[in-house]
UniProtKB/TrEMBL annotation:
Transmembrane segments: none annotated. GO terms for cellular component: membrane protein complex; plasma membrane. This is ABC transporter ATP-binding protein. Keywords: ATP-binding, Nucleotide-binding, Transport. It comes from Limnofasciculus baicalensis BBK-W-15. PANTHER family: ABC TRANSPORTER (PTHR24220:SF376), IMPORT ATP-BINDING PROTEIN (PTHR24220).
Length: 244
C-alpha cells in the first residue's frame, strides 16, 4: 500500500562517528497508560530510525498511537520501556531540565491548530520564541522578519493571527518552529486544518526545509498528499509497526 522504504533499527548505528547518521532512533518503545487499576498498552515495542534530512511520516488509524509515539520521540513524554536517541543523545536518560534545554535548542514543533498567541503579530509570535532562545531586541526582530520572508509572509509581519488565513497561520507556525535553526522538526497533522491549496504550500515548505536546510522532519499525518514528498512512511496499527 505504501511504496516507501522503511528502515529498521538493526540497520543502523547510533554512533555518529561511524557512517550512519540516524537523527532519530527509537529502541523497544513501550507505553502504557493507567486508568484506575487498569493498564492500557498503547505502544507495544517500536523500533525505528530516521536519517538526517529525511521526511519521515507516521501514519495509521485513529487511536493507533501516532501522537503518543511522536510525543515520546520529542521528549515530551517518557516511555514506560525503551530508549530514544536524538542526534546521538539518549534523551530518555536526561533530567527534566536538560531535556527542556535540549528540546528548545534542537527541536521545532508544528501543531495542527497552529498554537499562535492571538494578541501578538506574526513577527512577535516568532520573537517570543527567539527571546526564549536568547536572541533579543533588534536582532530578534530582524531574524523574525527573515523567517517570515522564508515562508513567503514578509508582508504579513505586523498582522495578528485573526487577520491571517489558516494556511498563512500555519506558515507563521513553521517560521516560528524554525527560529534558532533546530535540526529536527516534529509536526502533528500540520495540514489537517488547511484547504487543499494551503496544504500544498505547507507541504512544499516542509519538503524544502528538509532538502535545502537539512532539517529532519518527523510528521504525524492522515494526509495522503504528503506521501509524495516523504522519504519513508511508518504505518502504525494497534501500537505496533505494521509489517510490509
Ligand atoms: N494521556 C493519556 N492517558 C490515557 N490514555 C491516553 C493518553 N494519551 C493517549 N491515550 C490513548 O492512547 C491511544 C492512542 O492515542 P494517540 O493519540 O497516540 O493515537 P493517534 O494514532 O494519534 O490517534 P488520532 O489519529 O486520532 O490522533 C488512544 O486510545 C488514546 O485514548
Amino acid at each position: 500500500m505504501f511504496p516507501k522504504r522503511r528502515r529498521q533499527v538493526d540497520s543502523l548505528s547510533t554512533d555518529f562517528n561511524h557512517g550512519e547518521t540516524a537523527t532519530i532512533v527509537a529502541e523497544g518503545i513501550e507505553m502504557a497508560f493507567r486508568s484506575g487499576n487498569q493498564s492500557y498498552q498503547v505502544l507495544k515495542g517500536i523500533d525505528l530510525a530516521v536519517q538526517s534530512g529525511d521526511i519521515q511520516l507516521l501514519m495509521g488509524p485513529s487511536g493507533s498511537g501516532k501522537t503518543t509515539l511522536l510525543s515520546i520521540l520529542a521528549g515530551l513524554m517518557k516511555p514506560t520501556v525503551g530508549k530514544v536517541y536524538l542526534l546521538g543523545e539518549e534523551i530518555t536518560r536526561l533530567s527534566q531540565s536538560k531535556l527542556t534545554t535540549f528540546r528548545r535548542e534542537k527541536i521545532g514543533f508544528i501543531f495542527q491548530n497552529f498554537n499562535l498567541f492571538p494578541a501578538l503579530t506574526a513577527a512577535e509570535n516568532i520573537e517570543v520564541v527567539l527571546n526564549i532562545k536568547g536572541v533579543k531586541g533588534v536582532k530578534a526582530r530582524s531574524q523574525a522578519q527573515g523567517l517570515l520572508e522564508q515562508v513567503g509572509l514578509g508582508l504579513q509581519a505586523n498582522q495578528k493571527p485573526a487577520d491571517l488565513s489558516g494556511g498563512q497561520k500555519q506558515r507563521v507556525a513553521i517560521a516560528r518552529a524554525l527560529a534558532g535553526h533546530p535540526r529536527i522538526i516534529m509536526a502533528d497533522e500540520p495540514t489537517a486544518a488547511l484547504d487543499s491549496q494551503s496544504g500544498h504550500k505547507v507541504i512544499e515548505l516542509l519538503r524544502r526545509l528538509a532538502k535545502e536546510e537539512g532539517c529532519t522532519v518527523l510528521m504525524v499525518t492522515h494526509d495522503p498528499r504528503i506521501i509524495d514528498v516523504a522519504d519513508s512512511v511508518i504505518y502504525l496499527e494497534d501500537g505496533m509497526i505494521k509489517e510490509g
